[in-house]
Sequence to fold (361 residues):
Amino acid sequence: MTNPALEALGLAVASRTPVLLWGAPGTGKSSAVQALAGASGQACEVVIASIREPSDFAGLPIVFEGGVRFAPPSWAQRLASAGRGVLFLDEISTAPPAVQAALLRVVLERIVGDLALPDDVAVVAAANPPDQAADGWDLSGPLANRFCHLDWTVDAQSIAEGFISGFPPPSVVELLPDWQRSVTRARVDVASFLQVRPALVSAPPLERAAAGRAWPSPRSWDMAARLLGAARSVDAAPAVLSALIAGCVGRGAGIEFLTWMLELDLPDPEVVLADPQGFELPERGDRAYAALTSVAAAVASNPTPERWAAGWNVLGVAAADAPDVAAMAARILARCRPEGVAAPPEAARFVPLLRDAGLLP
Fold:
């Protein structure tokens, strides 16, 4: 039986998106993270956050040549030397507020003291709910908003089979070299949804306990788009995709976004670029915005002269019925103009708008 949380964890690690596993003590969170790192041939540095000091993450101040440097600990130096790996922050919900504050740059920017960890280092954390942790704290809102939160559960049948025949190693997710092209399309989907539901752009909870889990913010929507692109690139199961999106922006916003995407039924932007004159603009405003923006984003990801001209042809078809929506996509095309390529006739109707936006002299 597959575990959606384990598959979601693999995608988060592969896409280098910070992820936090929430589950009761003794349910195999630490073992799963270490097994995943081992199966992919990566170093795994386990750091117990609850027994660390702020200086273990912010760096130990050292006077050096008349100034002060913040020396990183040995575990950070080992990860930097390895070039890739997994930083596993265990027992993060029992870390006191001062330590949580010191973790902010570590989780988001991978900065430890004065040392920048390589981009190919994944950050994974594990936590017990505060009511199940010894001297547990609610996670601070700023730290919680830097993670994709996954609920870690155990299945009795899988545990029983593991006791008898051994626990199988986790499957390692291998993303294709061009997987980030899927992220471009995912960003369009997120942007289109937020045009319809602007109240969900940023909705921090008022209760401290809720702020310690997933909630919508520009940062968490950006993580959601990254994970959505990664999940699409490997054709992840719907349960895995749902866990990832809800883990970034919360269950309510996540369900609303996924439901909205299912109802869109948008055309493939590559098919539209191959036959611009055959494009039919959707009647619904949100669908029209998403369709045109996805075409412009597809051109921007690979702006050859031919694709750029085809993108303008699509906007020319749409401009008669929805000039305002087409103008938004025109801004994207104007910014990715191939060098030395003259503007096609379809761009003429957008000249005043592009000049006002500072995209034309």
Residues 224 and 245 are 5 Å apart (CA to CA). DSSP finds 17 helices and nine strands in the chain. Strands lie at 19-22, 43-48, 60-64, 67-71, 85-90, 111-112, 115-116, 121-127, 148-151.
